[in-house]
């Protein structure tokens, strides 16, 4: 519901920049990496409880990734592609749009897992373009799946493997 426009896109995503709602804006932009499902709209459903609107009302320049629904032409894309064409391309696009070299980032669900993984990769490269990271409902340790274990057993994994081989 918050007005904005697409300022960058590639095969995996569109980057939305939301319109400011304050006269002055904070220097460092805020970028949100949402889940690959539930998409962008989950944080911007209604004006009275939109996280995006709240953030713009606080003076943030807000960007959010809108992931595409992959089809067969993206079948060969992997997690590393989402890192490069998602997080890294977004950082380049935000710098081009705003002139700012650093952002604050939010990762939500699998978007947070991608963000955490990319931050580890960035640390190894001494890339400091992400100043801070906040996570909403994000798993980063998959050794113990916790409540997700209800959905993952040998039978489920076997079915998934069969589907992936088709």
Description:
The mean pLDDT is 91. The chain has 166 residues and is an alpha/beta fold. α2 (79-98) packs across α3 (110-125). It contains four helices and six strands. The longest helix has 20 residues, at 79-98. 33% of the residues lie in helices and 21% in strands. A hairpin with a 3-residue loop joins β1 (4-9) and β2 (13-18). A six-stranded mixed sheet has the order 1-2-4-3-5-6, sandwiched between helices.
Observed structural traits:
single chain; 166 residues; six-stranded mixed β-sheet; 4 helices; 33% helix; globular
Placed side by side, the strands forming the largest sheet appear as: 1-2-4-3-5-6
Q: Strand-and-helix sequence, N→C?
A: EEEHEHEHEH
Cα Rg:
17 Å
| Beta-strand fraction estimate | 15-25%
Based on CA inertia axes, which overall geometry fits?
globular
Structural class category: alpha/beta
Helical stretch tally:
4
Task: Average the pLDDT over all residues and give the rounded result.
Answer: 91
Secondary structure: number of strands: 6
Helices and strands in order:
Layout (H helix, E strand, L loop, with lengths): L3 E6 L3 E6 L11 E4 L17 H7 L4 E6 L11 H20 L4 E6 L1 H16 L4 E7 L17 H11 L2
Parallel strand pairs: 3-4, 3-5, 5-6
Antiparallel strand pairs: 1-2, 2-4
Short summary:
With 166 residues, this protein is α/β, with parallel strands linked by helices. Helices cover 33% and strands 21% of the residues. It is built from 4 helices and 6 strands.
